[in-house]
Each structure stands twice: as structure tokens, then as C-alpha cells.
Amino acid sequence: MSGLAFVRMARAVRAQLGSDHRTAHVLRVARTAARFARAHGIDAERARVAGMLHDLARLYSADRLLRECERRGMPIDAFERANPIVLHARLGAELAREQFGIDDEAVLSAIRKHTVAAEVMSPLDEVVYLADGLEPGRDFTGRAALASLALRDRDAAMRGVLASSIAYLTRRSLDVAPQTLAAAGRYGLGKEQRSV
């Protein structure tokens, strides 16, 4: 994708989101994903596009997320029904296909898995997941160290971000998605870290 095409995509994403704050986040995720991808010999262009399009449905209400997923015949599991916000990832992949003509399954997979992760993740899925959690606008203790780690060791960074996410949700008495717990097991988090 040319620089001009990417600028056009960024403008269209901004119009879709209708939020300068969210647009700034997706731009940072796109840049961070491309940086992580280059560090690991992964296609940086795919990472940049997935990062740019990952939050297309993030600002939808819970009712709209459920309605739009149901209208497309997308299956909704019990966790998603109880926590519709996580549907923005899978619905976002559908919007990327419908509104931006993205038919690259690798990019769509990275968009689908950027929020709750999954037991099976491609290297591209991983860098977009890590970029979403570690982009410079995030403000939590250890973010910079994890971002540095993500440039050297993706598996270790995945363990760190998953552990941080589970700890964050647990501190707030929020449920952890089954997909996140499956990913935690896959990346070698101990049982105690999966039930903080």
C-alpha cells in the first residue's frame, strides 16, 4: 500500500470512528505493530493495516455490537453475550472486509484476536495484540519494559501482556475471557498467573 493510500485509509478510519482520541490510538497501534513486525521479520505492511483497522467497532454500544453481529449471523458465545464489548474485535474484522475491502485472512485474523487473544495465534496476530496493549499511549507500570521485550522475544512479551491483562481484570472483579485463559495456557503462564 502506498503512503497516499494509507493516508486515505487513515482519513476513512477517522470518519468511521468519529473520535480524535480513538483515531490517535489506532495510529499508534499501526505504527507500533509495524515496528514489532519489522523486528521479527514479519510483513510490516500487513501489521500496519491490521493496526489501523483493529478498532472500527470499538465505540459501538453494547446493543449495537450484539445487533450488528446477529444481523451478520455471527455466533455469539456466553462470555461475549455477557461482555459485548469484546465483540468489537470480531465485528471490526467484518467491517474491515465490508468497508475497506480487506480480504487478507491474516490481517482479518489479527483484527479478530487483538482484544482477548486466542490459544492459536499467528506471528501477525501476536504483534497486533502486543501493539494494542503496548502502544505508547497506554499508561501502566511496566509498559515500556514490555514494549522493549516485544522487540526481542514475542513469546515472553505475550506472557507478560497476558499476565498484566488478567491481573488488571481480576483487580476490577471482571471476568477473563475463555480465549484469554486459553492463550495464557498456550504461552506458558502458570495456573496461579491465570487466576490472579
From TrEMBL:
The keyword Hydrolase applies. Keywords: Hydrolase, Iron, Metal-binding, Nucleotide-binding. It catalyses: P(1),P(4)-bis(5'-adenosyl) tetraphosphate + H2O = 2 ADP + 2 H(+). Signal peptide: none annotated. Residues 22-137 form the HD domain. It is an enzyme of class 3 (hydrolase). The keyword 4Fe-4S does not apply. SMART domains: HDc (SM00471). Its EC number is 3.6.1.41. It comes from the Bacteria. GO terms for molecular function: bis(5'-nucleosyl)-tetraphosphatase (symmetrical) activity; metal ion binding; nucleotide binding. This is bis(5'-nucleosyl)-tetraphosphatase (symmetrical). It comes from Vulcanimicrobium alpinum.
